Amino acid sequence: xxxxxxxxxxxxxxxxxxxxxxxxxxxxxxxxxxxxxxxxxxxxxxxxxxxxxxxxxxxxxxxxxxxxxxxxxxxxxxxxxxxxxxxxxxxxxxxxxxxxxxxxxxxxxxxxxxxxxxxxxxx
Length: 123
Prior knowledge:
Blueprint: H1 23-43, H2 48-60, H3 65-122
Helix pairs in contact: 1-3, 2-3
């Protein structure tokens, strides 16, 4: 039986850090996601009005393909919105993460400064 400890089996700490993220990296990825969303919102919507008009014209002309074209139109719009939302989510999340890391760095720096002052008094 072990009390107040865990078996020493692999994993956890001790080695060099394996995850390093720089604020510049986060900013670049967030910026890329924002730019992709901006371009995709314009370029991804390019054929929407024409596709919709074609679907209506085919349907009004009693062509069976009209409903199929409308399904393609709706399918594209649904998935385009999902992709746009995902790009916005990535961009916003990385902006938040970047700002939060900066706040954490300031707080940790302040905490360490007060601890080092206490250490000076203890000497």
